[in-house]
Amino acid sequence: MNQQNQDERTFIREAMDRLLAGKATASNGSLTAAALAAEAGVHRMALYKRHTDLKNEFEERVRTETKQVPETEKQLRATIAKLKKTVASQKAEIDDLRQQVTLLAMAGAVLVDRQGTPSAPELPPADAPDNVIPFRPPTT
Length: 140
Description:
Keywords: Coiled coil. By secondary structure, the protein is mainly α. The chain has two domains: 3-68; 72-117. It has five helices and no strands. Helix 1 packs across helix 2 and helix 1 (3-21) packs parallel to helix 4.
């Protein structure tokens, strides 16, 4: 590991301690990875790419020492809850569509069966509205 990386790691560890103690000097004091990078004076992407272990360590320390859930975890949990609701509604819709397919297949089978046997023209039921016209089998 080169000297620059070693210095960055030292700055990040010191920044971790300051943030967790509530004594931020260069950031807004929030317990986020972005605030950690700002407090340490390193680029945020350096923290995410080169020092992932330190970022994870910081998030774990936030979780254990302050009993807070990191913001990224809150966002992920909210996304998971939203996706679970979406999956549940899609499953219900799929079940409904399967029932409709079954009913339509049975209705189609009845219509095909009626075409094969000659029958008298059907009259609408007595309680049917005036605008109902019954299907009549085609005459051949």
